[in-house]
Specification:
With about 90 residues, this protein is mainly alpha-helical. It has five helices and no strands. It has a domain at about 1-55. About 50% of the residues lie in helices and about 0% in strands. The longest helix is centred in the N-terminal third of the chain and has 14 residues, at about 1-15. The termini are far apart.
Length: about 90
């Protein structure tokens, strides 16, 4: 079940702007917030997840179709200043 929690947390970080902004910078509060959402993580998982960087998630989040994302009202794009293609192709075409 724990791997499912890791996957759910990563998905939530990518698709929920407000959650992502609250989660970073990562600290004890981040994992308390995740636990309050039912996402219990082991100490090893917490340690591994502590290396995540908000900017990388913000970039990828910009490429996600707004229909499957909880955006902050900016047309499905996060206004973090990180530029992306927004086309869902991650700039690889």
């Amino acid at each position: 079940m724990s791997q499912r929690c890791v996957e759910s947390l990563l998905g939530r970080i990518l698709t929920d702007d407000e959650f992502r902004r609250s989660f970073f910078p990562i600290g004890p509060r981040s994992f308390e917030m995740a636990a309050a959402q039912g996402l219990e993580l082991t100490p090893v998982e917490r340690s591994a997840l502590s290396n995540l960087r908000a900017r990388r998630f913000a970039f990828i989040a910009q490429t996600i179709d707004p229909r499957i994302s909880r955006s902050s009202g900016s047309g499905g794009k996060e206004s973090s200043g990180v530029s992306g293609t927004g086309s869902g192709n991650w700039g690889f075409s």
